[in-house]
Write a structure and sequence with these properties.
The protein has 179 residues and is α+β, with helices and mostly antiparallel strands. 21% of the residues lie in helices and 34% in strands. A hairpin with a 2-residue loop joins strand 7 and strand 8. It is globular.
Length: 179
């Protein structure tokens, strides 16, 4: 099978969009795209505040540069009233079936004053995020489109880090002066 790249584009209001990238091991690009829309999209909604919109899902084949874009107007399902700035993220490790470092992702748009305390996720919320991501991994495997790291190693689970992570939104580049 082939490893396809899936990007889930999200925005909060008119802010610059951000993405989460997944790698899917599937037979064809169409099968990978369908899995992204049918399985990843609903699971991502469970990780996002209701004020955040998933704009599109881009599934591509890095080898051939073919791609499928599916537009969306799906919103998150978390009822959060005091959303923390987007640089406050949920960091999740995804152990793989081979030796080596686990894959990891940062999820924005789920940190709220109600589900965090002292820069830590409340345990009930961390457990809920963990269960949702474990379900995502299981559903994708059951669908014969397992989630993998960029080397093709299959994800075997999800481990939510209890501390809230601070992630820079964008780094400025140093200007070089030509003499």
């Amino acid at each position: 099978m082939t490893i396809f790249r899936c990007q889930v584009f999200k925005t909060l209001g008119v802010e610059r969009p951000w993405t989460n990238v997944y790698h899917i091991d599937a037979a064809t690009l169409t099968i990978a795209s369908n899995a992204a829309v049918d399985i990843i999209l609903p699971q991502e909604q469970g990780l996002l505040a209701q004020t955040i919109t998933i704009n599109k899902i881009l599934t591509s084949d890095p080898a051939t540069h073919e791609f499928i874009i599916v537009n969306s107007d799906a919103t998150g399902s978390l009822e959060l009233t005091h959303l923390l700035p987007l640089y406050n993220t949920l960091k999740v490790y995804f152990p793989v079936d081979a030796f080596g470092r686990p894959d990891y992702k940062f999820y924005r748009g789920c940190a709220d004053e109600s589900n965090t305390e002292d820069f830590l996720w409340e345990s009930a919320n961390a457990d809920a995020f963990d269960a949702l991501l474990e379900d995502l991994i299981s559903s994708m495997s059951t669908n014969s489109t397992p989630l993998v790291d960029d080397q093709g190693h299959i994800w075997t689970g999800a481990v939510v880090q209890s501390a809230i992570q601070m992630r820079q939104r964008h780094r400025k580049r140093k200007k070089t002066v030509v003499a």
